[in-house]
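As described in the Methods, two query proteins were run sequentially through the folding procedure within a single session, without resetting any intermediate state between them. The first query and its resulting structure tokens are shown here.
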Amino acid sequence: MRREVNWCSKCKRKLGLIGFRYRCGKMFCSNHRYSDRHECRFDYKAAGRAMIAKENPVVKPARILKV
């Protein structure tokens, strides 16, 4: 049984057991695992906003009937 061989998306180096999957979905070696090293265009602000919106739903007060 053969295992799948992974390659670094930046330098095309063969990855052994340790490959780092980044938020953009690509695999990187230990040299290119940080976003500033592989010129990633992942939008942290949009991801943070989506996470906050998902975890904190809008709370609306109950309507009060005026007499």
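Immediately afterward, the second query was submitted; its sequence and tokens are:
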Amino acid sequence: MKNKSLADVTEAQTLVKILAVCVVLLIAVIALFAYTLWWSSPQNNEHEQMTSGLEIVDIEISEPTPSILTDKFIAIGLGESVTLNITVKNTGENITSGADYCVGLDVITKDGGKYWSLPPPQYVGIDLGPGGTSRHTFAATNNRELPFRGSFDLQGYVRLVSTGEELSRSEIVTVEVRYPN
């Protein structure tokens, strides 16, 4: 039998230590990967659950009565108002808390906001289960003090109250303001 030198014994011990460190690192990487997958899954992502599913499914003009040809266009006189109904639906699978969301109306035409008095956003107000709907009415008034002739685009939105993150926008409704004769 051959005698092993001190160098052979130390080399074998070093090899075992390196192999042990590699196994520990491999286990740590696998654990980190599994942990990341678990936290990114939909049932463990609270923010994803909280913001999913709420959409504007309809925006319609209720006053004055829109044209028969298109329900997304109306012509009004200077200083008159337009009443819009916005319908929000929970298209997701979770119950949404109504106090977490607000519905509002925006003028999306550049610099058009100064020509309108818009109502403040409204809370959804009720908890919506899957398929549940909520209807909101807004009256936007054209400012008589700033005469303007032309058209404006109005659009409804749903936002998360806590962050202001916009979740959904409606179709565009065009309002034409006629200049007085």
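The chain has two domains: 6-40, 51-178. We note this only descriptively and draw no conclusion about the first query from it.
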